[in-house]
Amino acid sequence: MSGEFTQWLADWRQGDLSARDRLVDALYPELRAIAQRQIGGERAGHTLQATALVNEAYLRLSGLDRIEWRDRVHFVHMAARVMREVLVDHARRRSAHKRDGGERVSITSIDLADGSGDDIDVAALDGALVALERFDAEKAKIVELRYFGGLTIEETAAALDSSPATVKRHWQVARSWLFEALADQR
Length: 186
Hints:
Elements: H1 2-13, H2 17-40, H3 50-62, H4 72-97, E1 104-106, E2 119-121, H5 122-135, H6 137-148, H7 153-160, H8 164-181
Antiparallel strand pairs: 1-2
Helix pairs in contact: 1-2, 2-3, 2-4, 3-4, 5-6, 5-8, 6-8, 7-8
Organism: Luteimonas marina
Domain RNA polymerase sigma-70 ECF-like HTH: 4-183
Protein name: Sigma-70 family RNA polymerase sigma factor
């Protein structure tokens, strides 16, 4: 089936919108699971639902005409990144209307260096990931693939053409880095 995804991506790149639709239909359960994981960490009563998050990400992704899709993992990574952007945009809009600072996300599933699961402002998390990307793009990509994309160590290693041991080591460093970067938020 992996070959099918790659072919659909190539066909989409050539302008075949039905290939894009087949790809999204085939990946919808995985995209919805990613959305549920991302929203699952949000505060109680969060107004954005997983279906709406997937739909918004789909709209944004379908507007990316110039992207050179490589494979299913690349597509899922980009979808996870777009979902993160949607959540951050949503949090910023809410925080503009509220005095208390907006949306918070539990980062238990990132499993920070101290094992904390404190709530972190989603905009602060995004800012920390942007800073991590400037500091070390590979570690930031690992966080996106693991946390936002839901990939395993082995899948992440394959996506980055790296060894699982290297990914695991970089994942541990990235978690520690995020813990330090977000220390002021707790």
